Hints:
The structure holds three protein chains of three kinds. Chain B is of the alpha/beta class.
Amino acid sequence: MVRKLGLLTYVARRLILLIPVVLGVSMLIFAITMCFPPTIRALLYIRNPQALTPENIEGVIKKYHLNDPFYIQYFTWLAQVLQGNLGWSQTASAPVFSAILVRFPATFEIIVFAAPVIIILGLYLGIQSAVYKDKILDHITRSAAIIGWSLPSFWFGFILMAVFYGYLGWLPPGRLTREVQHFVDSSQLFTKYTGLYILDGILNGQLAVSWDAFKHVILPATVITVIDIALIIRVARSSMLEALSKGYIITAKAKGLTQKEVINKHARRNALIPVTTISGLLVASLMTGVVITETVFGFGGLGSWAAQSAQQLDVPSVLGFAMFTAIVFVIANLIVDVLYAFIDPRIRLA
Amino acid sequence: MTEERLLEINGLVLNFYTYEGIVQALDGVNLYIRDGETLGLVGETGCGKSVTSLSTLVLIPSPGKIEGGRILFNVQGKKVDLLKQSDEHLRTIRGKDISMVFQEPRVYLNPVYTVSSQISEVLVKHRKEEFLKKALESLKQERRKKGLKGSTFEMNLYERMLKNPNSLTNKILSKIPGSQRRFKLEVQREVVRILRGMGIPDPERVAKMYPHELSGGMAQRVVIAMALACNPKLLIADEPTTNLDVTVQAQILSLIKRLKSMFKSSVLYITHDLGVISEISDRVAVMYAGNVVELADVYELFKKPLHPYTRGLLESIPRPGKPLKSIPGTVPSLLNPPSGCRFHDRCSYAMEICRKVKPAFTEVEKDHFVACNLYGGSK
Amino acid sequence: MKKVVSLALISVFLMLGSLLLTPAFAAPVIKRPMGIYVATIEGGVPETVDPAWCYDTASAELIFNVYDTLLYFDGESLEHFIPQLATEYTLQEVNWTSPEGLFCRYRYTFKIRQNVNFTSGHLLTPKDVEYSIERGMIQDRCGGPQWMFYEPLLNSWGAEAWNIGTATVPGPEAELVGKMIDHAVESNATHVWFNLAFPGPYAPFLQILSQSWSSILSKQWVNEYVIGTLHRPEWPGDWPDYTSWLAYHDPAVSPLDDPSPIMCGTGPYKLVILDYAAKYWTVERNVNYWRGWPAEWPAPPYPSDPAKNPTPAGYVDTATVTWAYEWPARSSMFLAGDVDFCAVPREYIGTIVGQPGLRCTYPLPVLAVGSLFFTFDVDPATPYGTINDYGVFTADGIPRDFFGNPTWGIHTRLAFAYAFDYTTYLQTAFLGEAIAPATAIIPGLVCYDGSIPGYTYNIDKAYDEFSKVPGLVGTGFTVTVTYNTGNIPRQRACEKLKEGIDAINAKYHTSFVVNIVNIDWKPYLGAMVRSQLATFIIGWLADYPDPHNFAFPFYHSEGTFAACQKYSNPTMDDLIKKGIEESDPVKRCQIYHDIQVLARQETPSIPLYQAVGRHFERDWVVGWHYNTISPGIYFYNLWKWYYVPHSEFPDYPPYDYSNRLPEDVNYDGKVDMKDIGYTCKSYGATYGPPLHERWHFRCDINNDRKIDMKDIGFAAKDYGKTSSVWAPPP
């Protein structure tokens, strides 16, 4: 009982700490924009850069305090952000906030299929590699992992698309087939509850939509899985090897436990800690957009929009995306820390 | 203390195949332990004491390989060679008939599990039937008291598990949460009882703690508790008190003595501290560079050490008012051990023959064995 | 257990095997017979759905399928128009003075079609036309197309030409401008008329009225829905006073776009969804379209093959344009038949041409040209290169008037013209699919004169020209040539120029140095405007297919480019002014001939490339035809059906197509039996609607929408003639 309460207070404390961390990050990001001249910074508040004429630029600067001290500008901007207004994205022809909101589900859908496979399969293969160190399984797993990591994502994506779509015609690019997209976007029978088409299809009772969306998600998720699983395998393997060299493994064996029990019960939980760190970072970075994969398959997610905004110097979009990324990473770190507390009781809860 | 030899090691040879070459760690180790006896195994660091004890449990880490000898252990009247047993059989022996206590308790306890969970692990492994029966009985009694007939799901489960411990359905059924509450409770009670028996105050609280929350002495008691949970016939203690304060050390030693008399088990106590040896052992084995060089009753050894190395050890015990004496030279590398008797290059009594011929382990007096060319018996 | 496993494996392999075989055996079935799917380039995002705002082809493609204009180009022609929302028009010389004192010499009057409904249900009236044009002129967004109305109607370039102030603080001339706009377009129950303040009938006026910025919106719809229901800040269309219009002038974003795009037109399709995130837009058929649909048309006079075509409908119900896919995804969808039209980047043409199931139309002249400009007076404060004072030659720089000196500047310019290897450049940068015109009045425009010779590559002549500049050859020079970052053809052009100059150095041991610098687009434009670039390469796409649209920016001293170049020739200005004011087409072409001759003599800029396009579509698409000025695909003409195209013309090298004889059906430069053969194959086909299966627009020589004896007669009359093939000497 004492333990459980400790965990809850830990989580509560970290959640409360989240707020100053996010504020700090926002301050940092905002400080970077100070490098720009006021005309560019004005874009955070107004929509159309061409609307800035020599006549009204003075008025705009005054209205948004663009020449005032840092803290006034920061609070002006912050007040706006808290109302949900992150500026207007030229590349998306929409407010930055809704641009992110609309594109995030696409990326999320890919990740929600890729990440569990990466983590679970990667963990399993890494552990098996460590247990059967230097045997055939170890060599095969490690080589396959490195080959996967070395594959250029666009090349691999093209090959998959050429085989599974070009030749076999099974798994087309894009998020949905054209008719299904039309149905989803304009039919009265379909409400987009979450923007995740697979889930929305189920919620609306239109399983054909879910199936179509799923067919489109398989290839991008496969590309990401094959490439990124190497990370998890390597980390899992090395941390497992380290755990297996510890004293309590001998104790466990001396107690008469089977090899399986020793690995699964005693070693694995200790091996999880570095894997949790890496997994958290991996999932966070995947969440904030897998640019190349999205572009190759025409998926319309966060990554391609962010890359485009950066190329076109669309300042509000880039800023909004930076804020979003920062928040995702902060939350991911929080989740990882909480998971630590679950896995490893040595982490001080006090 | 009977004359029955519980454990007998004959001519144990152990080699480690490393990148640098073959490390000849054990070069024909001989010793025996009788029922109810404490054998102290003493020697310098690196002489092979820990490896010998691990060999007893057949837990040598690779790249080590046992390449000769026998380890005879008395199981229910029959002597079996542990080196020839299957893994499955060995697992029934480990933790139950032979168990081990190590040097640094907090390293040898799993940091992510509670004390209770680690101790109950060994209980469930080896005494499962006992607790199933207990749980079933107590449940039956409760129902009778309440005046109810028939049996609950839990009781049925226990009966099935008693009848058919290996069936798949039982395994699946046992995974249902809450289906083994009484069983777990019984095990928990036993854990607390064992901890109390170790002299640990407030054992309920300690049972829920994690290893990093325990002090050194407490942790060592927990490890000992874990080792004795299933009443083993032989307890191997590999330098259990080396890292502890002297006061705590004294406590642990007295605990071990008390437990030995309570459980009537034999103890193989490994240490490099001669003081501890004199305190706790009935008999002593002295090891040097992979060989047992002398094996005798503890009084005999201290009164009349036969082997030059033993003599050197006893002389080097610091005494107030006397200059410090030490054995010249260093322990040889076991990659390239000296020929003949491995002690010959440091021995003040060395003879020509010592360089060429390895001395045999001979019984010079009753129950007093030496491996030295001084006492003849070379092969 | 093992048996089951092996049986399962065998069946899996069999299934996979059969799937592998299926593609080979399946006959190509028309996918989605009632819908068209277009995959365009990744940057093909429509910027807006507001016709008054729209100045890019992506938006125009959407707008011109949903809205109608008063009139439109007839088929491929740029000079003949067909009536759309206007049924007739007249041009009169009225010499009318507006109440504000604006003297209007000419007036265009249009009779508006009756019984046309918008998709909102409202009836089309002349009031709507007046509203649409006035609304556009009021909006006049910065960088938008409205200057094309200001020029003819108010003889100016935009509302900011007057001191109008802002919405909160109206300037002294705000009321004047409001009144002028109000009186520029007037209407009554049946007609609309435009009063032109321009001193001339403004020849391009009808062309301007044919394009997307002249689309007609419904005033009632705007008032009821846009202002009434959605409460967006749109101009209601009335003039209670003449300053409140400022509130709608030059907004940051169009009210029809923000926060969501809305459209309501009279056109054949209506907008279903425009999704920037999913990157596509879809339109669906407007069943009440005033022109009607094939169901009401007579049945086609030819039998259809039921095995291949289940129901030849004659129209499509939906059309979708998507820009979500990069080239590899796009091309695989195109080859699989999931996409009907596909944008193919030049470098991948080789992989697509010849694939089964596709049809390629080539060549398609494009009214766009990229030119190398010389700055006649470079700003010495430029960060790009060393600029000396007037007439001062140094080895590490150039004098300010290097290109612009009144005496010898022509020689440097001509020298540079001779130092560029046009043929090789076009071959490498455009794979041969481009031509280098002689002047900015490019082939395809009305009054293009093909008799004017182009520029040639000749190192010796270049050196001669350099020698005619006193003091240059001995000293040498270093000039910086610039292009905008990322534009590969322009980069190659700079490199070609450098190669040419280096060849001169090699042969004549001169020390002429060319530095190539690339600048990002925005600063590039900025530097160009400030005359800081000694040379720059930039392109121009026609707004309307009239030579004035090219002559003015390139050669008139107040034109976009000439002003940056600081090029000013009063004779040229005078000619250009006369050209746009002249009403007689023959005299007009004479004036433009003079302009072209003068431009070739003066060489203020050298046209480097006019690309020739290709169009790709699936072979089951019927009805697509090319119009140089059309921004995209007009879905009303299209339907899906298999017909065997005899029109698989082989590719011939491109040449200046404007003097192509119309009977030269296969574009090979001669009129011969091949052309007559093609015409015979199409014999009897009609344009429809619906389109006849053997129709090909090239074979209809007299544009009477029938391919018959008359067309063959033309070919016979000009038999044996060749078009002059324009190609620089090897």
